[in-house]
Amino acid sequence: MKYLLDLILLLPLLIVFCIESFIKRLIPKKKKSVAGEIVLITGAGHGIGRLTAYEFAKLNTKLVLWDINKNGIEETAAKCRKLGAQVHPFVVDCSQREEIYSAVRKVKEEVGDVSILVNNAGVVYTADLFATQDPQIEKTFEVNVLAHFWKHSVPCISAVS
């Protein structure tokens, strides 16, 4: 009996949610404009970070690009400039806390307060766990885990200085 009652209560909810979903699909929400925003993208020298930078460049944003790879970050910056964005590339090792804080201060002085942060930097080693050396494991955690907890991860990085 309890299951029958649950089913009877579920059916009207399903109908309401289906109608709501259909209406939301027909009338999409207005997208927020990010034009003029200062966007910091870590790991922007290649891969997803680079592609993310290209997409934000098309939206008329000020880009702050961080990567450990100088050549990669310069290539990304050049392409973003061609797309019309104002770009500020920085070579930053996201596994080094003091280097992050130093870069945050430079960004604040040279560009301003970051309003959008894309924490994308990451390190991957393809060997299995037992073949991976201890320094590689430490580096993976420093970049993939710890870097997200330093104060630069706050939406407005002005709190760091």
UniProtKB/TrEMBL annotation:
Its main location: endoplasmic reticulum. The keyword NADP applies. The keyword Phosphoprotein does not apply. One of its GO terms (molecular function) is estradiol 17-beta-dehydrogenase [NAD(P)+] activity. Its EC number is 1.1.1.62. The lineage of its organism: Eukaryota, Metazoa, Chordata, Craniata, Vertebrata. It catalyses: 17beta-estradiol + NADP(+) = estrone + NADPH + H(+); 17beta-estradiol + NAD(+) = estrone + NADH + H(+). This is Estradiol 17-beta-dehydrogenase 11. Belongs to the short-chain dehydrogenases/reductases (SDR) family. 17-beta-HSD 3 subfamily. InterPro entries: NAD(P)-bd_dom_sf (IPR036291), SDR_fam (IPR002347). Pfam families: adh_short. One of its GO terms (cellular component) is lipid droplet. It is found in: Endoplasmic reticulum; Lipid droplet. One of its GO terms (biological process) is steroid biosynthetic process. Keywords: Endoplasmic reticulum, Lipid biosynthesis, Lipid droplet, Lipid metabolism, NADP, Oxidoreductase, Signal, Steroid biosynthesis. The gene is Dhrs8.
